[in-house]
Write a structure and sequence with these properties.
This protein has two domains: 129 residues, Sandwich (Immunoglobulin-like); 363 residues, Glycosidases (TIM Barrel, Alpha-Beta Barrel). The chain is built from eleven helices and 25 strands. An eight-stranded parallel beta barrel has the order 3-4-7-8-9-10-11-12, surrounded by five helices. Helix 3 crosses helix 4, helix 5 packs parallel to helix 6 and helix 6 packs across helix 8.
Length: 520
């Protein structure tokens, strides 16, 4: 059903029941990405001459914002960068490290920051590292040498080399990406799915011989519009299924022309992408008679205005250039909130997710060299979701009005998910109103939760919405767009009632009015 502009939409409804849990909220869903690209590393996380720099050269203002953002995991050092990267260039005395050409982004790479510096930063930021190996111009031996350097204790060439570099204890990195986007013609060392699958399988096998505790991510399609999508996943997994724990997905979203309605419904595309990869992975598992259930790593996702990008081939060789530093709007923040809802909705199969990237490069955090750092609009739905989503994701089946889109046809006006913490009885509802001009009443049936924990009350209600969907945060106005406290949300007759503004993202936290153990 659709409505004329200006009308109040008919209510959207759904029920929450703790008996219908999808999966636990994995903190790895709140990952990010640091690539040696543009100003993500240099003048982003690292700027030795900055007034806020610590003794290791890392910007404390960016560290503070990273912790506030709630990032749990960071993928490093790429991205396209890793496909021609020599990890050995980034270790040892800085004065002896070579300056190299970065073929991916036509950058001048001084190698001031490498593996050991990144691990220092990761500890300061309280994030888990997700390390990528070079399977573009590199191969099995290079990856084996790296994991020996990073994870082996002592008594071998590369572990003792690490110790000679001042790092006595192994890094014990658990999560490893077997390359990056090797289906893409833009990638150094592009491969066919069979070529990549064989290389990844042999690399993973050898890496596990060094450290059998590790988890491995195979490269999936660079996006669902690649001509090899589907075939790539099938052929790669036929070679790697027994060796890997995850297959990756990457995708970015932007408006096509002035079609804002389809852009706001971008999560429909992400849902379909995830479902397709799950089906392909399970098909391969069935073909191999395997009991293993592969998980997904959506380790690059975000809004990215790729139509504004001049293209890698048009860049000059430069150090730390401003590169795809998109300035995000209210509409972008609503889309990011919707993509987070999708990732949570698939928590049973998506075990890792990384918003790309952390600083400056299509990022929630922006900096000026020598100057301040500030939060972009997309910072806020990520930070609130990471802080509030706890326990298990509950199944949500929405009934209600639809809105028209050119890309996806009629879509539900309400995109929503919810989490439930059995220990406390707390519930968090996350919701997007996809209508561009109509408010949306929402009715959530809480009876199954109330029966276990007693009456619920609203303890937090935040939303991202603005009369100007194009409003953004800048260095001059860093707080133009911030979450605002919602009003009117309440629990009556064991139902949550609220009104979502047009083009908005909302989070509502509910807690038992009398805390106590759940009723058996």
């Amino acid at each position: 059903m659709t409505h004329a502009p200006g009308e109040l939409l008919a209510p959207a409804t759904f029920a929450l029941d703790p008996a219908f849990a999808i999966a636990a909220v994995d903190r790895r869903l709140f990952g990010s990405f640091v690539e040696h690209m543009g100003r993500c590393v240099y003048t982003g996380i690292y700027e030795a001459e900055h007034p806020s720099a610590d003794t290791d050269g890392f910007r404390r203002d960016v560290l503070d914002l990273t912790r506030e953002l709630g990032v749990s995991l960071v993928r490093y050092p790429g991205g396209n960068f890793v496909s021609s990267y020599r990890w050995q260039d980034g270790v040892g005395p800085r004065a002896q490290r070579p300056t190299r050409l970065d073929l991916a982004w036509r950058g001048i790479e001084p190698n001031e920051v490498g593996l050991n510096e990144f691990m220092v930063w990761a500890r300061e930021a309280a994030v888990e590292p997700m390390m990528a190996v070079n399977l573009g111009t590199g191969g099995v031996q290079d990856a084996v040498d790296l994991i020996e350097y990073a994870n082996h204790g002592e008594g071998t060439f590369f572990s003792d080399l690490r110790r000679s570099h001042g790092v006595k204890e192994p890094h014990d990195i658990a999560l490893w990406c077997l390359g990056n986007e090797l289906d893409g013609p833009w990638q150094m060392g592009q491969k066919t799915p069979y070529e990549y699958g064989r290389l990844a399988a042999e690399t993973g096998k050898a890496m596990r011989m060094v450290d059998p505790r590790i988890e491995l991510v195979a490269v999936g399609s660079s996006n669902s519009r690649m001509p090899t999508f589907g075939t790539w996943e099938r052929v790669v997994l036929e070679q790697t299924y027994d060796q890997v724990d995850y297959i990756s997905l990457h995708d970015y979203y932007e408006p096509i022309g002035d079609d804002l309605a389809s852009f706001v419904a971008s999560s429909v595309d992400m849902d379909a992408f995830i479902d397709a990869v799950v089906a392909t992975a399970d098909g391969v598992g069935a073909q191999l008679r395997s009991r293993k259930r592969l998980k997904l790593s959506f380790d690059e996702w975000n809004v990215w205005y790729q139509s504004r990008f001049v293209g890698q081939q048009n860049l000059d060789w430069t150090f730390a250039r401003e590169l795809i530093e998109d300035e995000f709007t209210v509409a972008d923040a609503v889309v990011v909130g919707g993509l987070l809802i999708t990732l949570l909705r698939h928590a049973d199969r998506v075990g890792v997710a990384c918003q790309a990237q952390l600083v400056n490069v299509i990022a929630p955090i922006r900096t000026r060299a020598g100057g301040p750092a500030w939060r972009q609009t997309i910072f806020h739905p990520f930070a609130l979701t990471a802080r509030l989503a706890r326990g298990s994701v509950l199944r949500v089946e929405v009934s209600g009005p639809t809105v028209p889109t050119a890309a996806f046809g009629a879509v539900a006006a309400l995109d929503a998910t919810a989490t439930y913490d059995e220990a406390t009885g707390g519930v968090v509802v996350l919701a997007v109103n996809r209508s561009l001009d109509q408010a949306l009443p929402v009715d959530v049936d809480l009876r199954a939760v109330v029966d276990r924990h007693g009456d619920l009350v609203v303890t937090e209600h935040q939303l991202i919405a603005d009369d100007d969907a194009g409003a953004s945060n800048t260095e001059a106005t860093p707080d133009r767009v911030v979450p605002r406290t919602g009003s009117g949300a309440s629990v009556r007759d064991r139902h949550l009632h609220c009104l979502l503004p047009p083009l908005s993202w909302t989070v509502i936290q509910l807690e038992p009015s009398v805390p106590g153990p759940p009723t058996p």
